[in-house]
Amino acid sequence: MRSEKRIYNDAVREALILLWEAADRICSKRLKALVPTLLEAMEKHGHLQLVAGVRDRLIQMSAATIDRLLTEPRERVTGTRRRKGVGATILRRSIPIRTFGDWKDPEPGYMEADLVAHCGGSMAGSVVHTLVLTDIATGWTECVPLIARDQALIVEALERIRRTLPFSLRGFDTDNDGAFINQTVHNFCRQSGLEFTRSRPYRKNDQAWVEQKNGAVVRKLAGYDRLSGIADAEKLARLYEFSRFYVNCFQPSFKLKSKVRMGARVVKTYHLPLTPYERVVRSPHVPQSGTQQLQAIFAKLDPMALIQHIRGVQEELTVGKTAELGQLRSESAESFLRKLRTVWQLGEVRPTHRKQAAHHWRTRPDPFESVRSRIQEQLELTPDITPKELFRRLQEEHPDQFSDGQIRTLRRRVKEWRTQMAKRLILTANDICAEIAS
Length: 438
Known about the structure:
Layout: H1 10-22, H2 28-44, H3 52-60, H4 63-69, H5 71-78, H6 90-94, E1 110-117, E2 129-135, E3 141-146, H7 151-164, E4 171-174, H8 183-192, E5 195-198, H9 208-222, H10 229-250, E6 256-262, E7 265-270, H11 276-282, H12 288-299, H13 303-318, H14 322-330, H15 333-340, H16 372-381, H17 387-397, H18 407-437
Parallel strand pairs: 1-4, 4-5
Antiparallel strand pairs: 1-2, 2-3, 6-7
C-alpha cells in the first residue's frame, strides 16, 4: 500500500474537469497548453478560486496525466470505453517474421496467404471470404471460398489445398489477421510440418505476391459485389474450380529478376513471362510424379471451355436467372468462339463487372397519386407543415384510403418537394444576380 499522498487528488481532478468543460472538451495536448491562460481568465472573472497547491499541480500536469484523469468523464460522454491497444501475445511472438526481402529464391511450396472479403463495401453481417494462397517460386495460385471467417474453416481449406497441389506445401506465410494467428492454425502447421511465418504489421509489401493476386485473380473473377450464404459460396466454389487451371495454365505472369536503385530511380528487370504451370514443370524441386500428373491434366484442358464455364458462373453470381444460364451453358464451343470475335463491341464482357442500371422506376402504384394536387396545394399554402400533420388531414378527408404505415411514403414526397423548391429558389436567386451584374 502506498504511504505517500496522491499528487493528483480529487480536488485536482474536479478542477481539471471544470477546465476541460470550459475549454469545450478539447484534447489533452491542447488543454495542457491552454491551462495557464484559462486559469488566469477564470480566476480574474471570479469563476474559480484554487489553493496554491492545486493550481500548481494543474499547471505542471502532463498531457498523459490529463488523459488518465479524464478517462471516466470521456467514457461517460461518448458512451463507449476506449479500446486499449492489444500487445503482442505469446503466440504472435512465437511466429517468426518474414519480410519481402527474406524470400530470396525458395523452392516451390512456400506460399503466402490472405483473406478477401466479398462484402460489397459493408462488413455488417456474415459474408463469404476467399482464402488465397500464392506460391513464391512459381506463382501457382489456389482460391477456396469460406462461408464465414473462421479458423477451423481455414484449416480445412489448407488440408484440401495440400491434397490438390502439384508440389508439397512447405511454408505458410500470412499477415497478422486473427483468423491466421491463432492456436488452431498454429497447431495444424506444427503437426503438418509447415513453416509458419508472418509479415510485419501494416506492411502489405511483405506479402506482395498474394496481394497482387487478390486483385488480378479474385476481384477480376468475382468482382466487388456482396456474397453471403451457402448458395453464393457454392457458386464461388464452382467459379474457382473452373478458373484454377485457367489461371495457372493459361495466364502468364512476370517474375522479378533484379532490382537496382540508381539515385532516385529503381530499375527492375523481369524474366520472360511464363505460366505457373510452366514454372512448376521446369522446376527441379518438383517430383517427377507430380510433374507427369500435371502434364496429363494439362493435355486435356480446353481454354475455350474453361472461359465459357467461368462466364456462366459469373452470370449466375450476378443475375442468377435459370433460363439465361441454361442457354449460356448449352451453347456450343463454336458459337461461343464466334461471339468472342465481336463481344468487345458490347463493352464489359465479365458479368461481375458490368454496371447495374439505376433503379429509377416504381415497382408498385403510388398511393398518393389521386391526391397529388391536394398535397401540392397544402405545401404551397403552409410550407412548414409537418408530414405527420399533412397525413392526418388526408386521412380525415379520405377515410379508409390511407393506412398508418404509408406515412413514410408521404415523408419522402414532402422531402422531394422541399428539395425541388430549394433548387428553384437558388436558380431564381442566381438569375437575379446575373441581371444585376449585367
